[in-house]
């Protein structure tokens, strides 16, 4: 009996040694949690990042933003208006139902028609979506549209049956996709837990469970990594870089990002809601005032002292690796004297008062940067009151254009300037889905025409010329005040095997715990 028991114990011990761990948990200490798990609700990196783990798109990007197949194995463009997508067979949604062409048609149509969709501009150029057979879809565009495959990256595919059964509102917290992970639970403000989709068409994920913990406080996030409470943190506080780099257990990774931080200025209303103007008019409607603001902010000092050198001064509204960037545009230096002269010419020799709205939990050092902007502008007579609030309050307010001056960022996904020109620089048009994030309600018919032309022109060289022209017009108008381009910095345990993406998304399928 004792011999048998000893043998059994040896077998159990050997099994425990020889078998791989069945359940690994990776903990991500995130600076910001998603706003919703409906993939069309709001175009924001933390929200998109989680949703790309739950859903797939027809097309996807690799680490360096090169197009690769997704739920579509391949695609063709037989003529200027037609795109054919050949879908993967055997793909299952999280509830076990089959993925077919019906789900693709439903998703594209819902993306463009759902009243609360923040992605309408992604499909605005599509005239018709048709099912050729259960695994072949035909998309017809209203005009030639060169980056249609890129835009399909933004349309995550939903289950038609699930949405129709549970309703539109349920998708924010009850998602069903084909992605590498399923939602287990979401306690907002505390944690969001994903479990691996063992039947994922790319293969089972190497990490069984992902626990995203929103750690909005910079010091808390760093401390959690150092104490091994988490495996990964994003938006690494600049002041902690040296400390993290010296820790042999940790690794800091960085890549130039596709996000430009800028000021959005109310140029539409004669009486802006958060301006105290001595003339009774909105000073931001005068281009000289907007240029004075540009010259009055010491961006280099902000990068050096607040961002700890992690950032690049922005010459325009998107970074240099975005297609459409114009290298001929240069950034004027910080010039207080010239800024004061412009304000005087515009009729504001003693400046004016204004509220600067900003987030305090969305971008690296966002509140500190806003305070630095206020301090700089005070030197030219503009008295700035900073209103730094959580992103869940800031973005609904900005969506309603209830801002006079706002500090926020924008990332071009896909990495093409049309992704700025249509959603931000185009005149606000709810029906077209254009200008969706144009918080200052900037409007220039020439820029609108260029954006629309760049959207339909199929010649890459011609598109580059068109978008470069638009970039120059935006800077002439000082439609936005570009400040700096973010460098995306993550820090992780060396136990976590992961290669950082250029788009700042954390795709957990790419990860493994050693």
Please specify the SSE layout and strand pairing.
Elements: H1 2-18, E1 25-30, H2 45-54, E2 59-61, E3 67-69, E4 72-79, E5 82-87, H3 101-113, H4 120-123, E6 126-133, E7 136-141, H5 148-152, H6 160-166, E8 181-187, E9 191-196, E10 209-214, H7 218-226, E11 232-233, H8 241-245, E12 250-265, E13 275-276, H9 287-296, H10 299-306, E14 312-313, H11 336-345, E15 353-359, H12 366-378, E16 383-389, H13 391-399, E17 405-411, H14 418-425, H15 445-456, H16 460-477, E18 480-493, E19 496-497, E20 512-513
Parallel strand pairs: 1-10, 1-11, 15-16, 15-17
Antiparallel strand pairs: 2-3, 4-5, 5-7, 6-7, 8-9, 9-10, 11-18, 12-17, 12-18, 13-15, 14-18, 19-20
Helix pairs in contact: 9-11, 14-15, 15-16
Give your account of this protein's structure.
This protein is α+β, with helices and mostly antiparallel strands and about 525 residues long. It has three domains: about 40-45 and about 55-165, Dipeptide-binding Protein, Domain 1 (Dipeptide-binding Protein, domain 1, Alpha-Beta Complex), CATH 3.90.76; about 180-255 and about 490-514, 3-Layer(aba) Sandwich (D-Maltodextrin-Binding Protein, domain 2); about 255-485, Dipeptide-binding Protein, domain 3 (Roll). Helices cover about 30% and strands about 25% of the residues. It contains 16 helices and 20 strands. The protein has helices at about 1-20, 45-55, 100-115, 120-125, 150, 160-165, 220-225, 240-245, 285-295, 300-305, 335-345, 365-380, 390-400, 420-425, 445-455, 460-475; strands at about 25-30, 60, 65-70, 70-80, 80-85, 125-135, 135-140, 180-185, 190-195, 210-215, 230-235, 250-265, 275, 310-315, 355-360, 385-390, 405-410, 480-495, 495, 510-514. Strands 1, 8, 9, 10, 11, 12, 13, 14, 15, 16, 17 and 18 form a twelve-stranded mixed sheet that branches. The chain has a four-stranded antiparallel sheet with strand order 4-5-7-6, covered by helices on one side. A two-stranded antiparallel ribbon has the order 2-3. Helix 12 links the parallel strand 15 (about 355-360) and strand 16 (about 385-390). Helix 15 packs antiparallel against helix 16. The protein is globular and about 70 Å long. The chain starts with a helix and ends with a strand. The relative contact order is 0.15. Residues about 1-20 have low confidence and may be disordered.
